[in-house]
Amino acid sequence: MRITKDMKMADVIQMNYMLIPVIYRFGINLGFGDKSVIEICEETNVDLNFFLQMVNTYHDKDYFPKEELQSIPSKDIVTYLKMTHSSYLNEKLSEIEDLIEALQHTETEDEKYILLIRNFYEGYKNELTEHIMHEEEVVFPYVLTVEEICKAGVISEKNQKIYDSFSILKYQDAHDDVEEKLMDLKTIMIKYLTPPLNTNLYHKIIQLLFMLEQDLSYHARIEDKVLLPKMIAMEKIITELN
Amino acid sequence: MNNITIVVAEASYLIQKGLDAILKKLGDNQVVQKMDSTESLLESLSSLKPNILILNPSLFNGDFKLLKKECAKLESCKLVVLSSDRRDESKYSADAFLHYNDDQSKIFACLESLKDELIKTNKEEKSDEPISAREKNILKHIALGLTNKEIADKLFISIHTVVTHRKNITQKLGIKSVSGLTVYAILNNLIEMDEVK
Fold first, then answer.
1. Which site among B33, B127, B176 would you substitute to test the A interface, given the most A Cβ atoms closer than 10 Å to its Cβ?
2. Of A25, A42, A21, A131, nearest to A78 (Cα)?
3. Which of residues 94-153 of A touch B (CB under 8 A)?
4. Residue B1: is its pLDDT beyond 50?
5. Which of A22, A61, B127, B143 could be B182's S-S partner, Cβ–Cβ 3.0 to 4.6 Å?
6. How many folded domains does chain B comprise?
């Protein structure tokens, strides 16, 4: 079901609890009473159009309003992506890490195998963190610069430098490796590891890994399907400027 | 792994969506793409490499023979004619025929049997089999951090052979990354934990 501006925000969340972290990234918190989506967006100064496109994209995997999303300034998309990044770095990744660590403490017999999982996860976490830092430090500043150049129609000296330092084509193939590791971790835990005694904790970790994977794939979808084509189009405009 | 790609070429949005829903029930992992012009269909066939092509011939009246030829070029691609006209069944020779009025069980039976045939012909992929002794040995060296070239030199085989083994190992185990394969190797006592660098 499509989420619309007149629906009650509470009903939206009842419909899909996976949206709780998504709306939180917009700065919207729970406790909305009977307020509608549009009312909440006005209260919190969130762009209604952008909000609706995003929650619908998350909610329905067949919904992908490329054109509408393309009309949203890169600046807003980048702000949103940065919020997602910080939620990965500050919450999700450490949450799973803490649970794996807890698992290691409760087990005595299988400790060796839990250590394997832990090391593997550490490796994954470092790789993802590195990927995120690269986006924050190189890709996003570049995106903002490109948008600025396109708006101004001229390239200042400072912008020229940033523009020359990177190209969006370099970015395209960077996504797959990180996903691969997460999938492997799930496969190993599901297929090959004898579950430890604390099954409750073990199951919870696997469920969180699935949720993280899903969240990451939506995140990547915005980057690959919206930001990337936008950038390619803008780069073309700039080449014509020169 | 029963990753089957099905392409649906049908003009009616309602039928597309309906078929989409039915195909989702059929199996866990399949990609469904829809085309609506001959050119775009022909273009996408080679890149999508569908295992089943469901086609409404009214879309491609004169081009049907051409499409069939293209289909035959692809490895293991089944052609299904979808139509509102019973006469189309004899008019076009395809692997199967679906009529707009067919009921659920008929449609399922038709697609299931095509799928079974596909799986039979694709048996060489052997995704369910355990890895062989040879592959275990290769896996051990991968886990120890050796490159393809180093493994080839050490075992006196070509790099190409190493790559093929690697591909089969990954396919059988469902693990792609080197660090994932390493964990598997340790879990299965192919190497010791402290051997890993």
1. B176
2. A25
3. 112-113, 115-117, 120, 123
4. no
5. B143
6. 2
